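Fold it.
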Amino acid sequence: MKKLHKLIIISYLRPFVATFFIVSFILLMLFLFKYIDELVGKGLEWYTILQLLGYNFAVNVPLALPLAILLASIMTFGNLGEQYELVAIKASGISLSRAMIPLVVVMVFLSIAAFYFSNIVMPHSFLKMASLLYDVRQKKAAFNIPEGVFYNDLEGYSIRVNHKDKDGKTLHELMIYDHTKGNGNMSVIMANKGEMFKSDDGRYLVLNLFDGVRYEESPGDNGYNERQRQTRIRFKEFGLKFDMSGFNLSRTKEELFKDNYQMLNVRQLMAKEDSLQNLMALKQRNLSLYVKPTFLIYRPQANFAKLKADTNLKWKNKDIIMNLPKSDRLLTVDDAINSMRNVKSYLTSAKDEDKAQVEILRKHMVEFHRKFTLSFACMVLFFIGAPMGAIVRKGGLGLPVVVSILFFLVFHVLSISGEKFAKQGALAPYQGMWMATIVLVPIGAFLTYKAATDSALFDVEKYQRFFKNLFSKKKEV
């Protein structure tokens, strides 16, 4: 490897790695802000949160990688231009295109890695994240009975405690409503003191009550007697056992999520698309077989070419009705009307079902093209960032950040809009998913050409002279 190639690659990798992790960290913070209410107060273990963040880090790569490539490209060639190293490279007879070759090779490997990541790693990470996030959201908040208010997270019971000791296990002046029978507030327990502890396996919470009374109302013995019977039981010690399984993080089987289109690779997406298309074709054939026998097709003996338009043709159907016995005419008409209503209902249901199937098919096709667009986006954004850095000749985190964010916003908005249009059916899936790439490829080619020919694209004086000459010619005319 030449020293020049080594210099350029090292100069590129440093800002690339730093930018990639900075952007990934920002996206992780956005994820935390979005689901902070689902995570706080549930007593999650640190490794569970770390797993969730790790899976989300992998899912965010399609956003972080293109921005890191774009910003690192602008910063690298901007620094080379600002420090006149790019001028020295060109003075030694090496063109900008040749200087970009080592980074082009790096981009090829990055693009291949991006495709592998999109096809293999990201579906697996998305499956793990979706499954874990679902379980976290289903988990109840950490067990903690507050003072002075009713606590309702124990299934079937509502508990109020006036005072707790510092050990958190000894309770005073308890009131417990028993809702396990589903008959409202018909049973209440009041105790002066209580002690709670968990069972050895941690599945149950045992609450021992001392010096209390249990009140329970129940219907009378006779069904016609509206008066109720009240039972009062005094006790010195009474025990309750609560199921704590809802407070533990129970894992759902990942097989329930694996058929989602976002969790499939290219081969699985192709197989799923084929099965969906075959299913839709089968339903269309069944629809035709169901509807066709319902209609009576009238074929006149005369040649169709000799038939003339007859506005009263619909009244000829009266001949069919009139040939029937009088007793069967009304019944035949009612049967025909009911048959048409059934056909209409069946067609409406089939239309809605077909619409849902088409939407699912579009989502699978969109996800199929997404596997490839990330790789091409890496190459396209590099050929935008590298020449842009050589043109602006500014390094650091000032102008390069502004320019890269502007181009990335254009790329991201086009990608999101194209995906939305593709899922809605306004564009074909390949058109929507490749729209951003198609728009940015000419921009990258134009910037690369301008940078290779040393064109002063952002020379303000050049544009001022152009407009001055233009207005002076208009005045002469």
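DSSP finds eleven helices and six strands in the chain.
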